[in-house]
Design a protein that fits this description.
Blueprint lengths: L4 H17 L5 H16 L1 H17 L7 H19 L1 E3 L5 E4 L4 E4 L7 H16 L9 H9 L12 H8 L6 H34 L6 H32 L17 H7 L2 H18 L5 H19 L3 H19 L1 H8 L4 H24 L3 H11 L8 H9 L5 H19 L1 H8 L6 H14 L14
Antiparallel strand pairs: 1-2, 2-3
């Protein structure tokens, strides 16, 4: 079932209000029940899956310290779940799901909401306990809440056990936290409904149409997808963090001005931070430490393994592997040429170096995202071919404006222009806007402007699901 906005807003208001008046003793149980209702409303089988995996991991972790076989069994269970579910894609024909590799259908198969995300949390949990970095949870209800907390269950952010568990019995939603949560939630809603959904027609026209557009039109569509992905996912994160804040919880930040990165390495410190931290802590560091005698070779292997695992986590599609190979090449190049690039950069003013580096990083990310967004490798290479041929359109209105502006009539041109202007404003003044969004007091002018923009320019019909809900 799709999440209807009216249900969510009513649900959120009721939960935040009741949670504020509950005592600390009953507040965790109430939020757990609210999370169960939320997931069950979206997809009842998914609720069964999250509770099942929580139960299994809770009991497997009880006596896992130092027991290698039990630890490997628990790891295998969670890894297999991610791979198994990623093999299945929902059919557009009905309640069937096709196993593309084998070519047969499994009717009424369960697609679990957020399984990839809370499976990573479970892997972190059992790993930390096995290596004595954490103690097993004694409360199964708290562990259920850790996995099913409704603000982060769909697409994160991913929280380690120690980061989340410590807040369960001590959280108290103050008026400042509720105010800060509202500020954060509103900007997330604007990012999603105005910018990300406003850019969807242009991105859809370039990536999903059978038309082969000219070079500059295709290139702009590629750029807009990367920006759409950012506003879509950072908008979700703002809404998740804002909602959690209203309930008295502090979740991890997931983005930190990623389009201002001057290297690919820096980009991945700023983009999807919780996921990258997980891959760094549980994939990259163990590999590099185990192969530490080989120095740079260990780093190369760690980078390759991290991005290949990330590709599989996103989906079992060859395009994700090509996306991963792009970043393996980028980061290996940065590692090998660090000294040379440092020497060259000294010959130019710092501002020129910074702007040039940001330009190169952004284009590198956009290039890799051609594979990330395309339905097949053939389509991705065709888009690249389009970019390199017939770069300037013969007719700007029909070949450039019309594809990107959803048909190109005056109203659509106006809407597209407004979306681009608001997108540019948010990117240019992102640091200032983030301060407003995290303030502990409600800024009436800030809230009013955001709500007004959402009401006037928000996409309310056929609103797209959050992009990362598919993973």
């Amino acid at each position: 079932m799709e999440l209807h906005p009216s249900f969510f807003f009513v649900f959120l208001i009721v939960v935040v209000t009741l949670n504020y008046f509950f005592s600390a003793r009953y507040r965790p149980l109430f939020i757990l029940l609210a999370s169960i209702i939320f997931i069950g409303y979206l997809n009842l089988p998914s609720l069964i899956v999250v509770l099942f995996f929580s139960l299994i991991n809770f009991y497997l972790a009880k006596n896992i310290t130092g027991k290698k076989f039990k630890f490997l069994a628990a790891l295998s269970l969670n890894i297999s779940a991610i791979i198994f579910f990623n093999f299945f894609n929902s059919s557009t024909q009905g309640p069937e799901f096709e196993f593309h590799t084998a070519g047969f259908n499994i009717p009424h198969f369960i697609v679990s909401i957020g399984l990839s995300f809370y499976s990573l949390q479970n892997i972190a949990y059992i790993t930390d306990i096995y290596f004595k970095r954490a103690l097993p949870q004694t409360s199964i209800l708290n562990f259920f809440l850790y996995n099913s907390f409704f603000t982060k269950v769909i697409s994160g952010p991913i929280m380690s056990p120690n980061e989340f568990m410590a807040q369960i019995n001590s959280n108290k939603p103050s008026s400042e936290m509720i105010s800060s949560g509202i500020n954060r939630f509103v900007i997330g809603l604007l990012k999603k409904m105005v910018i990300a959904d406003g850019l969807y027609p242009a991105v859809h026209a370039i990536f999903d149409s059978s038309n082969n557009y000219n070079g500059i039109t295709t290139l702009i569509g590629v750029y807009l997808f990367t920006i759409q992905l950012y506003f879509d996912f950072s908008g979700y994160t703002d809404m998740a963090l804002g909602t959690a804040k209203m309930l008295g919880y502090n979740l991890k930040e997931n983005f930190n001005l990623p389009f201002r990165s001057t290297s690919i390495t820096e980009f991945w410190r700023r983009w999807h931070i919780s996921l990258i931290n997980w891959f760094t802590n549980y994939i990259y560091y163990p590999i590099v430490y185990y192969l530490r005698a080989y120095k740079k070779i260990a780093v190369f292997i760690g980078i390759a393994a991290t991005f290949l695992v990330s590709a599989i986590w996103h989906g079992l599609n060859f395009t994700f592997l090509l996306w991963a190979f792009c970043f393996i090449i980028y980061m290996s190049f940065e590692l090998l040429t660090k000294a040379i690039r440092t020497n060259i950069s000294r010959r130019f003013p710092p501002l020129v170096n910074k702007l040039f580096s940001i330009f190169i990083v952004f284009n590198g990310v956009c290039f890799s995202n051609i594979f990330f967004r395309s339905e097949s490798a053939i389509r991705a290479f065709l888009l690249m071919k389009n970019i390199l041929s017939n770069f300037i359109p013969a007719n700007w209105l029909s070949d450039f404006v019309a594809p990107l502006a959803n048909g190109g009539n005056l109203m659509e041109q106006f809407n597209f222009l407004i979306t681009l202007l608001l997108m540019s404003f948010l990117l240019l003044f992102e640091r200032t806007i983030n301060k407003k969004a995290t303030a502990l007091k409600i800024d009436i002018l800030y809230i009013s402007i955001c709500v007004m923009l959402i009401m006037i320019f928000g996409v309310f019909n056929n609103t797209e699901r959050f992009i990362y809900m598919q993973f």
